[in-house]
Design goal:
By secondary structure, this protein is α+β, with helices and mostly antiparallel strands. The longest helix has 23 residues. A five-stranded mixed barrel has the order 1-6-7-12-11. It has a four-stranded antiparallel β-sheet with strand order 5-4-10-9, with no helix packed on it. The protein has a two-stranded antiparallel ribbon with strand order 2-3. The radius of gyration is 22 Å and the shape is elongated. The protein has one domain. Helices cover 19% and strands 39% of the residues.
Length: 225
């Protein structure tokens, strides 16, 4: 038996298993699976108290949010900022800022609308804006302002640029998205929407699960039951 081959192969298999498990159980993968497997219904068909997935187009209510990195008008944004760190001969990326913020918006499915209660949401947004700063590449004023807001800087103690990467995903008006949670029919007044909305479905979290939200193309396909 050739242990010189078996031992390295065994180590490689163990590392591979851990990597695959990490990919399968990371937050984004879990949310995507939940939304892809969820029962889909039209907003108009949901009964109060029912947990289901709905798909519709984003519609702003009042003034939209402004995404902090790209300056885009949006209903919801997610930002991830990571700094490259060195440990011996290896390098890795540490999360220094992770933020998601929801504004006032609904999703429309034909004549019916659903309002998302954004107090307890887990989202997977397509990170379609990516930036970086580092050696020979100063952070833009917008990136520096965002870092400073969260108690971070693009430069180290000697004035050298840190290696930082920035990712941003947003929900823009008219974009098709999926949301899953517990539905409750309410009047527009109850959810602080204009009277023109009349009756809306509010999508809330439960004691066990948050509201799941995504604009990933793999999550917005739906087969109605």
């Amino acid at each position: 038996m050739n242990f010189d081959i078996i031992i390295p192969l065994g180590v490689f298999i163990v590392i591979l298993v851990f990597v695959l498990l990490g990919l399968y159980f990371n937050k984004k993968a879990v949310i995507k699976r939940k939304l892809k497997k969820a029962v889909g219904k039209k907003i108009s068909d949901i009964v109060s108290g029912e947990i289901a997935k709905v798909v519709g187009k984003v519609e702003f209510v009042g003034e939209p949010l402004i995404a902090p990195l790209s300056g885009r008008r949006c209903a919801y944004y997610y930002v991830l900022v990571e700094q490259q760190k060195s440990s011996g001969k290896s390098t890795h990326w540490d999360t220094i800022i992770e933020e998601e913020v929801g504004g006032k918006f609904v999703i429309r499915d034909g004549r019916h609308c659903a309002h998302i209660d954004s107090r307890n949401v887990k989202s997977v947004l397509v990170e379609d804006r990516q930036y970086s700063s580092g050696y020979g590449n100063d952070a833009t004023p917008e990136l520096e302002k965002y870092l400073n807001k969260h108690g971070q800087k693009s430069e180290g103690i000697f004035g050298w640029n840190k290696n930082i990467r920035y990712k941003e995903g947003v929900l823009e008006e008219g974009e098709l998205i999926a949301a899953m949670g517990k539905g409750e029919w309410k009047s527009a007044e109850q959810v602080q929407l204009p009277d023109t909305y009349d009756r809306v479905l509010e999508i809330n979290s439960t004691e066990q699960e948050p509201v799941y939200l995504s604009d990933d193309p793999k999550t917005v396909s739906i087969t109605y039951v």
